Amino acid sequence: MDYNKSEIADLILAQLKSNKKEILASYMDSEHSIGYFFIDDLLPKELVLDIYQNFPSVKDAVLKKSLREFKYVAYQMDKYHPILPEIIYAFQDQRIVDFFKESLNISSLFPDDNLYAGGLSLMGKHNFLNPHLDNSHDKNRSRWRVFNLLYYVTPDWKLNNGGNLEIWPDGLKSEPITIESKFNRLVVMATHQKSWHSVSKICVDSVRCCVSNYYFSDSPLRSQDRFHVTTFRGWPKQKIIDPILTVDSKVRMLLRKIFKKGIVENPHVYKKKQSD
Prior knowledge:
The chain is of the alpha+beta class and 276 residues long.
């Protein structure tokens, strides 16, 4: 059976509602640091396998490689199999957005039709994402980024493969919480001035696939939040890389203060055709 985004959204919403008590308990328990929760077995297995099997290869994705990160992304969705935009935009269904808005007591909440920094993520052997804070705003710098939705679809992914989400609720001088990138798991994480997170280096010859969405709001999650670019740091053992990334982030932040929309446009945006 071929699923469309509305049918997939029906399935997601049913799981959210049936797990609402656990969602609220996990989020409220962690909200003082980095609010998060995850749901396993989100969608029927055959659907998730179809999503995974139709992911683009790394050859058909965009490489992002620097001291900050090493990964592949895909966001020009009309280039890929139709099931991929269906699953991405299922998470943007208004009913699902309203569920989060009402359940987590957010005054306003909006999905991102442009997929600014969202879409598909692929990470293979030696790929990583250093500890960082996500850019505080949307592409127009008009709304605040408040939630990060990560949906993992790689079958039989193991914890010791690496490529797992790490969140740092007590800062980078303390130990992170590792959230396994488990097949058919949805992770939702609050994003604000203290939401440091990373992805551990992958150590197997396999590709971890993830569907990524962000939600935005008219107001930040925390009153002390301020505009910032994506801000990278080193892992605690990276004594040389950390000061380099700290300077790099400060320079990019200074440039954004001078050039409000950046020197060049961030290409990580889904540029839709007029008929879409």
